[in-house]
Amino acid sequence: MRRTFVAGNWKMHGTLAANEALLTAILAGIADTKTQVALCVPYPYLSQAQSRLAGTAVAWGAQNLSQHAKGAYTGEVSAAMLNDFGCRYVIVGHSERRALYGESDDLVAEKYAAAQAAGLTPILCLGETLNEREACLTEQVVGRQLAAVLARCGAASLAKAVIAYEPVWAIGSGLTATPDQAQAVHAFIRGQVRAMDAAVAEGLIIQYGGSVKAASAAELFAQPDIDGGLVGGASLDADEFLAICKAG
Ligand code: PEP
Hints:
alpha/beta, TIM Barrel, 8-stranded parallel barrel, binds phosphoenolpyruvate
């Protein structure tokens, strides 16, 4: 039986004061959930996350990292730096990074490898655009994104990773994939992994992401291949986020 895992992606939101209130409210309500929970915060707030979340049931992480270990890469942040702030997780290949910052499948695979080499657990995002879905290319696109990581790191690496299926058209749009639509892609992803390593496939956590709300979470998480959620907007509202965590 896989455990439900809900991760919040704060994206580029927050202030020290607002985060303090949000973290306090989340910590006050999290005690009675069995769901595994993590918050992926902007780099400048990692220290705050570490000091507020260390020793609690909530883990923390970042939203991106450099593929390089160190060097002349102005503005970049390495996996080792994330380790210095106690991160357990790092999101790689979020569709906003792929679309807005030109991250290719190969670069995402490099970042995934860099995260794992430093002992971080990558949350690998996969997902198709609306055009791709309408052209019946969902499996081709998601399969290609996954294959880049499998080619570089192998299926066994997924024993220390999380996958988030995030249809691009559902992110921040208010359009959640139906449970059937999401389940079909999750089953496809697990099947691709199963073909290479059955044991890893069975234990693999595959989150759904895309406008998850408290109202939609329980039905999504009840699907056999949906093991939780990667939550953007709703992770900025403590009550909504806690309700999603409790739906697991
Ligand atoms: C995300 O940022 O990964 C995401 C799924 O956002 P939202 O929940 O706001 O759609």
